[in-house]
Specification:
14% of the residues lie in helices and 15% in strands. Helix 1 packs across helix 2. It is built from three helices and five strands. The N and C termini lie close together (11 Å). With 243 residues, it is of the alpha/beta class. The protein has a five-stranded mixed sheet, covered by helices on one side. Strand 1, helix 1 and strand 2 form a beta-alpha-beta unit. It binds arginine, zinc ion and calcium ion (CA). Arginine binds next to strand 4 and helix 2.
């Protein structure tokens, strides 16, 4: 990243049950994971296979928790239509989304762990949503998604990263140093896992933008780093986050 990027984070908690009203410690544990995963200080970074040693990245972006807003609700699940971001629908509107990353914690439902808005969208819905059961590493965080990697993955999307399989059979993630995957991976694939796509490359299943369990993902690539950095350069869609 050209010039330091630091992301102030505003967390918006929507809760019906006391369990959904997650603790500050759980919220901070998610911020801590983001700081480790985006700065290559995650303890599993050294598990990256030597095949990918040349492309594993220290993204160099940091996160600071700035505020937590909480609101009670009667909703049992929120879905993915952004209602949690709209006050008139019982949600919490984002706080200054052009200079802060807003993160909503709620029950999404439908087996969805989280979702994010790509750069360039409406600021009124900008940010990431993480189901409270998959947020951070403590409290209600639930195995096998209890290492905060849903947050890492969603923030990757928020910084313009696509899924590593390109959301299509042998699709493209628009990043050249990540191998072409035939489809999403799940669980914790044994290494090496070969792609069925052209050339049968070894898949980078340990990339944060695949769909493995949290303990199966522990790297971004240099190409992904460049794609994220482009969002923050002067003139980029999230340039306001540059220090
Ligand atoms: N399904 C979500 C998405 O596509 C997140 C997947 C996160 N994976 C994980 N191991 N936490 O945005
Ligand atoms: Zn995703
Ligand atoms: Ca690729």
């Amino acid at each position: 990243v050209n010039g330091k990027v630091q992301i102030p984070v505003v967390v918006n908690v929507l809760y019906r049950t006391t369990a959904e009203n997650i603790s500050l410690a759980q919220i901070q544990s998610q911020i801590d994971v983001l700081n480790r995963d985006f700065n290559a200080t995650n303890s599993d970074f050294n598990q990256v296979p030597s095949l990918f040693a040349g492309v594993k990245a220290n993204v160099g972006i940091s996160f600071v928790l700035e505020a937590v807003y909480r609101k009670a609700t009667t909703k049992t699940s929120w879905g993915t239509n952004n209602a949690m971001k709209i006050a008139s629908q019982g949600g919490i509107a984002p706080t200054t989304p052009t200079t802060r990353m807003n993160l909503w914690s709620c029950t999404i439902g439908g087996g969805i762990l989280g979702y994010a808005q790509f750069p360039g969208g409406s600021s009124s819905t900008d940010g990431v949503v993480i189901d409270s059961k998959y947020l951070g590493t403590t409290g209600t965080a639930t195995f096998p998604f209890n290492l905060g990697r849903t947050g890492t993955h969603e923030v990757g999307h928020w910084m313009n990263l696509r899924h590593i399989w390109g959301d299509a059979t042998c699709g493209s993630d628009l990043v050249s140093d990540t191998p072409t995957h035939n489809a999403a991976n799940s669980g914790v694939p044994a290494y090496p896992s070969y792609s069925t796509c052209s050339g049968n490359p070894v898949e980078m299943t340990m990339n944060y933008m695949d769909y493995t369990d949290d303990r199966g993902m522990y790297m971004f690539s240099n190409g992904q780093k460049s794609r994220m950095a482009a969002v923050f350069v002067s003139g980029g869609s999230r340039a306001s986050f540059r220090l």
